[in-house]
Amino acid sequence: MTISKEVLDELLFGVENADDLLGDQGLMKELKVKLMERMLGAELTEHLGYEPDAEPSNQQNNRRNGTTRKTLKGNDGALPIDVPRDRDGSFEPELVKKGQTRIDGMDDKIIGLYAAGLSTRDIRAHLEEVYGLKVSADLVSRVTDAVLEEVSDWQNRALEPMYPIVFLDALRVKIRDAESRQVKNKAVYVALGVNAEGEREVLGLWIAANEGAKFWLSVMNNLRNRGVEDILIAVVDGLKGFPDAINAAFPDTTVQTCIVHLVRHSLNFCGWKDRKMVAKDLKRIYQATDDNEAEKALADFEAEWGQKYPSIAPSWRRAWQEVIPFFAFPPAVRKIIYTTNAIESLNRVIRKATKTRGSFPTDDAATKLIYLAIRSFEKTGRAVREWVAARNQFAILYPERFNK
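Structure tokens predicted for Mutator family transposase (404 residues):
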């Protein structure tokens, strides 16, 4: 739509400064109000079937019945508009629906601020400072609670039948326990899949009191119930019983200990001045050409550091059965598994969103924020780097399962 120069000249007559145009009593705000009222009037005309300056037929009982003042909250602050009424109350406006109090994507702004980690109090202060809007804590909660419906649909959606790689991890988040009313470190379980096209996809998130193999089994059953038939490689931390929980649901899945987790755990045992050298020597283990060379590198590491740091080599030996599958894969697949960039970047996004909150009053409050962080994470790009080479290797290693 093009507005003629004559109309613009008439509208801008008397406008002398920015405040006259954009201020609280300025032209833009008044124009928005008048246009909305005009459109609402047109809707009522369509509903009643006669023009405002005309008379309805004698057979028609429903007629215009004045207006109701309503204040809408939007980017321009509070907008007071007069909504036309009919006598029998059957008029349902589309432009401003009954019960609607917000326009201009205000809900999206509230959800965006919540996703950035702002508390309800911070969101209210921001809206008042920037837009001059006073909103209640209840309104903010109702807007963000709408996210839970989206979470439910997302959490129960159907999944792909086969995922070449699934990363499984748990983070700690402070949440107030509903029974004891004490703030506790709860486990947030996250499953991140890589599908056959090399696209990252967060398969779900779950919250429990503690991380344990028993709960991971329920997670694996959830994935199976949502359509997952096969996982080629599951990359996990060193939790005891984790491989058994995975293989109970997916017997053919190769369980691989996350090398990054294992290295970090090892570095916790050594002093700061030795960390760089220890990490360098550990790299010789997981960059070995095969498991025999890796075992020799582990023995060399133990000979070098075993007396000073006696706990590191045994921790690798305890996890060895979940480390050695790694060496059966070619470099293209190994790189994706051991660097775990995907799950690491996801965890960073979640931690960044949760750290500003300190603690959450409920599991639902934590779920809302973590889901919004995940949604933001998936918008940044889902493709795994150098996937073509890895896909070709999967097709060779698992011809029947990968090419289903």
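DSSP finds 18 helices and seven strands in the chain.
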